[in-house]
## 1
Amino acid sequence: MPSVSVELTEEEAKLFLEFRKYQDTFKTMIDCGVFDTQPGSIILHFNLDGVLSKIDRNQVLFFVASK
């Protein structure tokens, strides 16, 4: 596979790293089923660096009894 070299300014590099952080957060949220929690609620916990560290998922499950 051919290698590719990309040069970024310092500002572009910071923006890219920020984008990757958000991309990783959304990937984790998708993998954990955050967007499939219906009905219910989700609490996202972030550490001091702004990195997702914990997801609390509270899904309301109910059963309808048949007669």
## 2
Amino acid sequence: MDLSIRTDTFGQDDQSWIIQCTPSTNKGITLDKSAFTLATHYPNGYLLSGIALGVITATGLYAPYVTAAVDGTGVLAGFLYAAVPIRSTANVDPGGALMRAGVVNETKLLAIVANGATGGGFIDTTGKADVVGNIFFD
């Protein structure tokens, strides 16, 4: 175990997609690092807030939401609340926070996760139905 002091620096997170959030309903989660791809999900070294997430049933880890997935990630659980730095050399699943309730600006959300359409993490009509009553889209 490496207990040395280190400093991480990454770009500013854009949470302009959040209109209203109920922080008490956010949930601490662990992300399955292997489910995210560098070019699609963290080209700048960190996962952006707003990525749509589902939970892998077998492991309990969170991964990009993909409508057709049969591993559990085909059900939208919520959105990554804040950016999460990814260490490309570390084989560690990072922690994060899941936004499970609130109001989001769909236009800004779609702009943030535009690459998600091909690699997961992108919302659609089916995903919106999964969170009806908890997350509202404006």
## 3
Amino acid sequence: MDQATAQVHLDAWLAADTAISAGKAYTIGNRQLTRANAQEVRDQITFWRREVKAAAARASGIRNPNVTIASWNS
């Protein structure tokens, strides 16, 4: 998945979080989300943030953005 697509998904879930935190319902596709779905929304935000980060890393040539290689040479 490319970074732009992942960002669109992340933005939708962030908008859902904002709406339901204000006591409103929010619809993504055919799903209506309310405060009862707050944990699911947070989980989706975490997922899509990772996808955006991974896509950005792939675009810049980094294979795995969650792995850091330590260098012991000074």
## 4
Amino acid sequence: MGTETLVRDILPLAYRAFGGTMRGKTLLQKRLYFISVILGLDLGYDPHYYGPYSEEIATINAELKSLGYLSESVSGWGVDQRGFELARHDFALTAEGNRLSERKARQNPELVQAVENAARIVNEAGNLDYMELSIAAKAYYILTRLGRKATIAEISAMLPKFGWSVDPEELEKATSFLTKMHLVQQG
């Protein structure tokens, strides 16, 4: 099964597993990143400004919106120091989107169970905001690239290679989240 087909199946199920909504594009990306990690699936993630990012997730999400399966609301909250408007894009399954996710669930009960279990693991590890979840995703992405255990200092030293900068205290909190998800061990 290709990445695009897999994303088409998983994305509506992920919305369903997280209560039908995603508060922001970054949160959407990071939740799906951790679902892909837990399930051992390649959903097309590569390094990006806010951590691992999948163009396939972004494209299929936009497609679901254009087909009426998702509604989108935009909340503006000011302008950054460079003059760019800051906004959060929230998404929610529509009635048709709920029917789509139910169809996907009936067609592949094993996948829906796996996605729901992965979403439960993410939720139980801690209610992180999108920035904290981004930091956790960056830390785990680096660990996968190193291919071995690493200290927080080693992870911190690798961050600039991907264009990322993270405060050490934030990185410590992120590794605590990863420990709760059983993706890393402390010590």
